[in-house]
Amino acid sequence: MKRNVSSAWRRLASDKLAMISLVVLVLFIVMAIVTPWVSSRDDINPVNTGGNPTWASPSREFILGTDYLGRSVALQVMWGSRVSLFVGLAATLLTIGIGSLVGITAGFFGKWTDATLMRITDWFLVIPFLPTAIVLASVLERSIWTIVFVIGITSWPSTARLVRSQVLSVRSRLYVDRARALGAGRAHLIRRHIFPNVLPLIMASTTLAVPISILTETTLSFLGLGDPTTVSWGSILNEARQKGAVTRGAWWYYMPPGVAIVMVVLAFTLLGRALETVLDPRLRER
Amino acid sequence: MRRRFVIGKVLGALSTLVFVVIFNFFLFRVVNDDPINSMFRGRNLTPAQLDRLRVKFNLDGTKWEQFVAYVRQLLHGDLGYSLKSSRPVTTVISEALWPTILLVGTSTLMAMVGIVIGYRAGWRRGSKFDATATSLSMLTYSMPEYWIGMVALGVFAASLGWFPVGGLNDAGSTATGFERFFDQMHHMILPATVLAIAYVGEYMIVARSAMIDTSREDYLQLARAKGLREAEVRKHHAQPNALLPVVSLSAINFGFILSGAIAVESIFSWPGIGQQTAFAITGPDFPMLQGLFLMISAAVILANLAADLLYGYLDPRVAGR
């Protein structure tokens, strides 16, 4: 196992794009973590920004300018990174958790369990997930956890399908039959044989699910479904649009949050694809 | 195509539709226990008035009675009344339908350019063309469609003034015939292009990997051995077979583009289903949201059914068994 990890890491390290992506992600995560130390949440509270110029273009004092209330755009993007990254990661964990549970259960137990679970998976796969997320979020309380829950509950089906098919192929291998013949119980089989073999796939699909979760979070908060007490990249863009930043030509207001979204999503996607190639040798020749 | 295949697919689609109806009911009556209270929060209504509203919106009685009433209403094509405009939900939706069909249809056709690019990239895997196309598609995939919309508006409408900032027609325009048509086209170019850019990458990636899978097939070697030129092999032997995955993913893409239209329509004030959805969120206008969700889901379910049947027709191996 240890040797596998180190050889996988070496292959990943030779992929230049993956390494750049990793650096970008580390930088964003560091930014999200240190923000409360370098600035105070009150700095972007409209009550305290009365003295600042409004709609100011980038200057030495405000490197990304200010918005209609005189709040620094740079600080908003920094605070926004915390919510966007946190929700993106938490929602991904929920997505992968539900997906893996359903996939392993369906694949391992088969028969009617499989048939029922796959029917439900198909339903969720066909109904468009953004509208579902929208109606769910609009009937629930507005909070960060609602967004996490809503993304998790709508985006697990593709993981479930992927995991299930992997479980099916692992289950039919000889060494699993051998273990079963030697008297291994279900729990043992899942823990020792099925799960370790499905894990690499789960990891790759986690990395690829993060960008989707982040994009969904920004879309939901852009549509006004986010937590009204927090700042996220989507809610900054929503405010910028409502206050007419686009028609005013205040590019410094709506460009930075968008560029941040693109960088993080692109980095996660590139890293996920690289990881997938490293973990799944069949994809390597692509 | 076997009858069993068709019946199976139709039943599958129907079961999904039934699921959506139950889910819809569950959302608005069970998860949110008292929609009337949250809809009219802060309006200072007396309990008697609230009760009257509950009767009006079919929210009295047990959950089961409510469900039966809801399904009966639905079967009569009645989706209730919008809370904001007090107009029937079906009227609002049918007015918004045409602009959305126009916008989503146009951008879907535009995004299908991705299929051609994907085929080319997949056929010459590892070439410079492939590398450029793949990186570009990853980039557009990473951009939220509403942000592309904001940037496009800022550059092409606000700064350069080449396109109007929104709407379906010029305000107060009384033009008819061709003039009206060109005016609408002028308004549609920007939002349609934005949606197409946001989703062209998905088509490209699917078409590319379909082409890569096909290019390993033995019958291509055979075609080459027959002495066919490379272009002929690609056109007559590889492309038709690489079409299959593209067909089935087009339906999923249709769902994505329709969803993407929610934010893009509201940015461009395009009076369609998406803008109505964005309107209904602020409020929230529950009957409207419920009706719109049902409508959008039904459209996507139908698109999936059509894609499945088309797949079975194009590849008899799938439908024959």
Q: Can you characterise this structure?
A:
The complex is a heterodimer of chains A (286) and B (321). Chain A is elongated. Chain A has helices spanning 2-13, 16-38, 73-109, 111-126, 129-139, 144-155, 157-171, 174-181, 186-222, 233-242, 245-248, 251-279. Chain A is mostly helical. Helix content of chain A is 75%, strand content 0%. In chain A, α6 (144-155) crosses α9. Chain B is mostly helical and 321 residues long. Chain B contains 14 helices and no strands. Chain B has helices spanning 3-31, 35-39, 47-56, 63-75, 89-111, 113-123, 128-142, 145-159, 177-215, 218-225, 230-267, 273-281, 286-314, 316-320. In chain B, 40% of the residues are buried. At the A-B interface, α4, α5, α9, α10 and α11 of A face α1, α7, α8, α11 and α12 of B.
Q: Give the total of beta strands of chain A.
A: 0
Give the N-to-C terminal Cα separation of chain A.
Answer: 25 Å
Rg of chain A, rounded, reads 22 Å
In the predicted model, the low-confidence regions of chain A spanning at least 5 consecutive residues are none
Strand content of chain A: under 5%
Short description:
The complex is a heterodimer of chains A (286) and B (321). With 286 residues, chain A is mainly alpha-helical.
List the helices and strands and how they pair.
The complex is a heterodimer of chains A (286) and B (321).
Chain A: H1 2-13, H2 16-38, H3 73-109, H4 111-126, H5 129-139, H6 144-155, H7 157-171, H8 174-181, H9 186-222, H10 233-242, H11 245-248, H12 251-279
Helix pairs in contact in A: 1-12, 2-3, 2-12, 3-4, 3-6, 3-7, 3-9, 3-10, 3-12, 4-7, 5-6, 6-9, 7-9, 9-10, 9-12, 10-12
Chain B: H1 3-31, H2 35-39, H3 47-56, H4 63-75, H5 89-111, H6 113-123, H7 128-142, H8 145-159, H9 177-215, H10 218-225, H11 230-267, H12 273-281, H13 286-314, H14 316-320
Helix pairs in contact in B: 1-4, 1-13, 5-9, 5-11, 6-7, 6-9, 7-9, 8-9, 8-11, 9-11, 10-11, 11-12, 11-13, 12-13
Summarize this structure as a short list of keywords or feature phrases.
heterodimer, A: 286 residues, mainly alpha, 12 helices, 75% helix, elongated, B: 321 residues, 14 helices, 78% helix, 0% strand, globular
